[in-house]
Fold this protein.
Amino acid sequence: MRESQKSTGEPILDRTEEKKKGRGEVPSSSLVDSMTLINRSYVYEFASEAYCRSHGRSRKEIIGNSVASIWGEEDFSKFAKRYLDQCFVGNVVHYENWLEFPGMGLRCYRVTYSPYFNEYGQVTHAVVASLDITDAKKEQEALEKSEAQFRTILKSMHYGVYTFDTEGRFTYVNDVVAKRSGYPREWHLEKTLFDLVRPEERGAVRKNFEAAVRGEYVPPYEFAYFKPDGDIVWVHISTTAIREGGHIVGVLGLLLDVTKRRKSEEALKESEEKYRTLFENSRDAIFITSHEGTSVDANRSFLDLFGYTKEEARELKAVDTFVNPEDLDTYLKVIKENGFAKDFDVKLKRKDGTVMDCLVTGTTQRRPDGTIIGYQGIVRDETVKKRVEAALKDSEQKLKNILYGSPIPQFVIDRNHRVTQWNRALEILSGIKAEDVMGTSQHWKAFYSSERPCIADLLVDEALGQMADWYGGKFSRSHFIDGAYKASDFFQAMGSNGKWLYFTAAVIRDSKNNIVGALETLEDITQQKIAEQALRRAEAKYRSIFENAVEGIFQTTPEGQYMSVNPAYARILGYDSPEAMMQEVTDIGKQLYVKSEDRLTYKAILAEEGTIQRFETQFYRKDGSVCWVSINARAVKDESGRALYYEGTMEDFTKSRLEIEQLKKILDAKKSL
């Protein structure tokens, strides 16, 4: 593809009178065979199918690549860059030129470069629309050469051609008009132009027509009409007066069907609105800044995180959000050297001065020559997470202290089977001091006369297939701890007469779910052996509940009736089926909520914020028992903001809640000793 020297001259510049805020607009008079969207880095962000076909490339080969790589550096520098730069300063550029494409020969195009303004009035893109007018050029030349061929040419033109008398009555239409409109030539000759157009556009069309009858220049304009089958057609019309003997006797018009272009514009508009919606509604705090660090755009999550209004954010500078300005220099250094920064750990501050521990992930916006023109990225507030990590570290130390002082005999081994914990209770039970076994693999001596694996060893090695070899039918999977195993056995060497021990072992995993060790606890059940069967039945019951528990999904009316629930939801609340539950529960607030005020709080949060996360409350099950549930939900609203229904998910966290309360009781009991 190359640009021919056969040019119609310098481009025409239209200085925009006012920088529009929000989306840029392609002038409605643009004729489009193909369309592209080019950013300030001279990179394609959109290309129509017609544009891709003319270049002999796929969209994937064009979108994301520079104009220079598609047109060639010479034509880009000589023509395209000059027009784009004029567009980026706010000018609309029109020009016609002859271009040569592979397999297409020399073609004449009418091209329009239109600036695209964001909501702050800044030009962020150029919308380039082009129309292949080769046929029109050739037809025009043919008309000029031979008046005798006029009617023949009109019938074969790519454009629709028509003439009117001064009252707007059709006096001639060519085959293109008849074919594309769906109305025969005879129908047109009995109608006026105003009979064809839609009522809402009739006034504007009449005004333009009357101006043409007066001999005034009428810029090309567009209107729509309905075909006989009901389909809507958009047309672009250019008109001029017909003169005879110095008098205007009618109007000549050229018509082009621009329905495809209109649909492309609507699709582009919908795409822009879609991505703007994703940007604004993202829970991640997203920002875009200029090279100088001035805010260009920020979504709602960013504004909420930092406490600024949209208007205030327009004047915000990146340095204003950094607690230590030198951290900004470090961040920019990283991002300039690598082109991006991932999870940059930094302290940022809100408008009110509140300091936050944050992770920033950002990238540069660059021109093809590598010049940085801005930055964009995501900010995540890690303040709560870091507090939790610190609390977890403190909790781990406390748990170690609790473990050693626990009245329950227990030990911990690492991935290599070395003992890392051997508490006081186990010292008493086994008669082996912690100092004699810590750091060794001789924990087996407390239970057996010769070396062999304990359950903890088998779990660390993930050798579950050997469990039966060593423990026969004496072991089983724990019903309370995922991946844990339990067993009971008689140990003749322990005590004067031997002891029955009940022992449970569970793996210990790191944050990446890798096994790093195992914990084994022991209990003297010599006096409880008789009750073992009853205990196993109870454990089987709770195991069944645990293994069948999955996340529940629901939809309810704001008034408290179920619209739908899934089987898991019904099972969580003890119902045989979703249908049975929906039939029996007709008022959620009265029948399920243990605390009716929780229902009011739940509805109030949804009314105000639209969503609710991890809302914890207590529900009655069908059998009257109470469970703790965690609810994530959102309010689905109509256009007026009225809540139509609520939908979300529910998890039963009764077990974890009870475990926390039990641990609290143990801690409280420990404190009281």
Notes: The mean pLDDT is 83. The chain has five domains: 2-132, 145-259, 274-385, 405-542, 549-658. The CA atoms of residues 323 and 353 lie 9 Å apart.
